[in-house]
Amino acid sequence: MNLDILTDIRRERFGEIANKLMNNYCILKKDSRDNSDVIYRFAEIEFYLYSLDTPDEDIDTYYRDCNCVEWFFHGSGVDIAFKTVRDGDELTQFGGILVRGVEIYKENASGEWELTGVAGGPRVSMYEIFNHSIGMPDVVPIHDTLKNDRKINKTTRIGIKDKALQRFVFADIDWNVPTERIIERKEKDGLYHVRLKKTPRKYNPTV
Questions:
Q1: Can you say how many angstroms the Cα of residue 195 is from the centroid of all Cα atoms in its chain?
Q2: What would the pLDDT profile of 112-126 be if each residue is shown by its tens digit?
């Protein structure tokens, strides 16, 4: 990943960084099942930044010792990490951008990128991005045909009790787009069957 926008991390820049990331970049994966490219567009992200200068502002940030723009996996999902700052053996600043939701795009028969589904929720998004991947997915500039200036809403984060406006989500996102998922259900024969189905999944986060 080569994201120059993440080399100068300050809270007052979160809105600027979110706009550039969500409207100009995407995650690219090579899918092992059919060797196709899959584009994941950032649809919902949250910023986390611990700093020794303001230790009480973001106490929910997971500890990490990372270089800039590494993938950082944790119990809630996956972050694009900021560079950890050290003073000797003390970590004085660290954090990252939690990927909370993505839109899924694949090329259709005409070679055009087409929206094929959504993944909502940080762990669901992580599994969607990294499962069945040949190599490590990468953050790259978005394809020109998908580049536009979509409106982004700024809110407080999900499940965090502070009032920091550090969550960014597309204003026009539709979390109920039918998406191919593995579904287990009891059918007419009385048995449980596991199938691939295009189905919506309820994900309507509120703050």
A1: 26
A2: 999 999 999 999 999
In angstroms, the CA 116 to CA 177 distance is 8
Q: Is 80 helix (H, G, I), strand (E, B) or coil?
A: strand
- Burial label, 9 (beta-carbon count in 10 A; 0-12, 13-18, 19+): buried
**Rounded distance between C-alpha atoms, residue 114 and residue 111, angstroms:** 9
At 140 the pLDDT is 95
Confidence of residue 207 (pLDDT cuts 50, 70, 90): low
Q: How many of the other CB atoms lie within 10 Å of CB of 85?
A: 13
> Taking the C-alpha atoms of 169, 173, 174 and 179 in order, what is their torsion angle to the nearest 10 degrees?
-80
183: amino acid identity, one letter: I
The model's confidence at residue 57, banded by pLDDT at 50, 70 and 90, is confident
Token look-up 């993944």 returns: 119
Length of the chain: 207
Residues 87, 101 contacting (CB under 8 angstroms): no
Closest by CA position to 98, among listed 51, 60, 148, 65: 60
Unique residue bearing structure tokens 């589904």 = 117
Whether 20 contacts 26, CB under 8 Å: no
